[in-house]
Design a protein that fits this description.
Elements (H helix, E strand, L loop, with lengths): L1 H8 L15 E4 L7 E4 L21 E15 L5 E15 L4 E15 L8 E6 L3 E9 L7 E10 L4 E2 L9 E14 L2 E13 L8 E13 L2 E14 L2 E17 L2 E10 L1 H4 L5 E15 L6
């Protein structure tokens, strides 16, 4: 359940599609000497939902996405455990080209893990989870018939971590690969989906034993306010069995300016209602802020 919780907290979002924004284009300055004026699209973030956005950070711009999340999870396999987690999460993004961005994910956690079947006191873990580095590459732009398609690749290692999370798996590097699809259905309605796999790599073994799927709808409510609803599931291989967990979440986003947005969200584990082999339950909620600023105009 710990790995699943980590995946949950690597939040992502196509919410920007659900808020009407001008396309990147040129217009004529009505008061100047007919000088082209660039209209920058409003910020599009990977938070607050799990579905990573297929949008790329604008060239030369730095984008920060941070927030807080509380999650409560209970599972019965094996032996049973109850986990309460407070997480402060940060995603740092930088646009290298129109189709390529580099990124880092930094999560600071405090966890309380109780195993009721034993006489042991609850275990506490505090520190910074293995820092994640990666990139996004846009494969296909959106058209009338096809969605925008982007590939995401992440790697992380406990060598770059702190506190109780330092060197938990000193000889392993973890990877995650996702295919992200995003499409505008109507001027105010968008849909997005992610399909991903993940696993561990070491000198002796490279494997994929986890995966995810998500589907989200976003709608523009007007006045720079957006709302989304999302289903997502995570699967994990244990031995020869495949276990899955199912979630539903939703939330709101608010644009305070073209480059600044706030969000709030909540979700619930549906596994116990859908008869999942991985008998789990729980909930999570959080809030965050995202902003961007130009750092390297010479890249344009």
């Amino acid at each position: 359940m710990k790995k699943i919780s980590v995946m949950i907290l690597l939040a992502s979002s196509f919410w920007g599609m659900a808020q009407e924004r001008p396309e990147l284009d040129e217009i004529v300055d009505p008061v100047g000497p007919h000088t082209p004026v660039i209209l920058m699209p409003a910020i599009a973030t990977d938070r607050p939902d799990i579905t990573e956005s297929a949008q790329i950070t604008p060239v030369g711009w730095f984008q920060y996405e941070g927030g807080y999340q509380y999650s409560h999870a209970e599972q019965s396999l094996p032996g049973g455990s109850i986990t309460d987690r407070h997480q402060f999460e940060e995603v740092l993004r930088f646009g290298i080209s129109k189709r390529f961005e580099v990124r880092a994910v930094i999560n600071a956690n405090t966890e309380r893990i109780d195993i009721p079947s034993t006489w042991l006191d609850p275990m506490r873990m505090t520190g910074v989870s293995p820092v994640t580095f990666g990139f996004k590459y846009n494969l296909f732009e959106e058209s009338d018939r096809w969605p925008q398609i982007t590939w995401l690749s992440h790697i992380s290692t406990s060598w770059i971590s702190s506190g109780d999370y330092a060197n938990v798996y000193p000889e392993q590097i973890f990877h995650e690969q996702r295919l992200m699809l995003e499409k505008e259905l109507m001027p105010r309605l968008g849909i997005a989906s992610n399909i991903g796999i993940s696993g561990g790599m070491s000198e002796m073994w490279t494997g994929t034993d986890e995966g995810m799927f998500s589907l989200a709808l976003g709608y523009d409510l007007g006045n720079n306010l957006g709302v989304y609803a999302e289903y997502f599931s995570n699967w994990e291989v244990q031995g020869v069995q495949l276990f899955g967990t199912h979630y539903f979440d939703g939330g709101f986003t608010k644009l305070l300016s073209n480059d600044l947005q706030l969000d709030i969200y909540a979700g619930v584990d549906l596994s116990s209602y859908l008869g999942s082999k991985f008998n789990s339950s729980g909930f999570f909620f959080g809030t965050g802020v995202s902003y961007r600023l130009p750092l390297a105009s010479y890249l344009k």
